[in-house]
Amino acid sequence: MSQDVFISYARDEFDAANTVRLVLERNGITCWMDVEGIHGGESFGVEIPAAIEASKVVVFILSERSQQSKWTRKEITCALNAEKPVLPIAIEKCDVVAPFSFYFSDVQRGTVYQDISQSLDNLVRDVRSLMGQPEEAPVVPDDAVRALTHDDRAISRRTLVVAAGALVVGVVATGVLLPLARPDGNGMTSLLGGQGPTTATVYASDCFGYDNAGNIDSPDSLGYYARSSQGDGAGVLTVGRAFSILSFVRNEADAAARVESVTFEVLELEANEQPEVRADAIFNGNTLLAYALNDGWGASDDTTFDIYFTTVDDKRRVEAADLATNADVADTVSLGSGEVARLCAIQMDQGRFATAGKREDSSDPALYLHIDRADTGEQLVSWMVGIYDGKFYIINGIGGGGGYEVTLFAVLDVDAHPDSIRFTSEEATPRVEDTYRIETVIAPTKSCHLRCKDVYSVNGQLQETPEYELDVRVRVMLDGAFGYSSPLTEELAATPDMGQMAMQQVASMYRYDPTSILDYSGMW
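Given the sequence above, the corresponding structure tokens read:
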């Protein structure tokens, strides 16, 4: 592994770092950037020091955020220990704080120039000078200049102030101004011209619940299915568990195009920490056991329940106590996120049940079991209960769907609030001969509201999808774990006298893991 420049940056500043990379590589200066996971532990311990050692110059994307990153601090320290010249590039006006104030004490962050073409020229010359290369006129393509020209319509107003002096004693810096983005008129936005004319275009995109996106094989189906079946009429898409941004790339030249990276950008992200109380019931012999679960991300305090039966024929209410020899019913329960509590243990009398549940058209007695929230009136359970072969049973079932193949997948940690997630796997960087379908599948760790988009690097040109706004409903528990006498309820009911702490330990084994999306079985 050997390259001219190592680029050190915080993950929030990828667009700026990638802009610098594209300009340098257009002029034959090879660059190395960590784009796999932005400084994973193994990556830093092995790959990062090796990449720095193999580079001639280290370029540091300087901002308030990058100075807060422990990884950039390690990289600059590593570069200094390896006696590599460091070129700080300020992308915003910010104070330089320790330890960078010490690192850059001999480097003046330079003047901002308004001539974009000359600024790009200076950038290339300064990097070449630090590498000890002979003077050579830089190539500054017109499309790069146009892409970096300030535009009132531009989606990004951030500027790059390049301090073209290395972190070595006695070097004085100069600077350049590089505004980032300009929009195209085709729905996508071109961010930076690359090597020669565009050879491929991301020409169509839409956002879906990811299980629905698997049904879309052509752009002709975009724009209808997701909004008509799941939208709320206000442009906000509501989905369960996870979502997909699905795009199509069209090659417009004879030679194959290369998708170099796909980046999911988080523009706004807000956790939805509301409680979601659910109920389930099961029989252990003649004992009816009911449980409540908070499947949401906020606490539910002092929740009350109404547990009763109704007849099948005339829907007449029958009190649970009238069918039981003994009834232990909780008055109220308070549930934190992911917590479970027992609502009742009712010892049913088969004779009383058979009398109350007699039906005109059947010899088998049956009643409807109801569990409602008394505090809100919400109906949580309405299931038919019967007696068969001398045993109580609940008539219910869980529906399911087919499998779904996932390619570009990432977990969105809502609490960590990342600004972007980058895909650089083989699946994310295909060669495009004609048209190509690209889908990013994002699974948030909890319910949230967000605004987002995808950014594609295609043959050195950045293109972006429209922005999408959506609500993602993520339950705390695994799909199918709770409800309809499911596995969690069965395990709790196997030990009816289980204490609260023990019940929580059991429930913790059924918590949802976003990576289970990869084994999707259509359970919601």
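The chain has three domains: 5-183, 200-272+402-473, 277-399+483-500. Try to locate this feature in the token string yourself.
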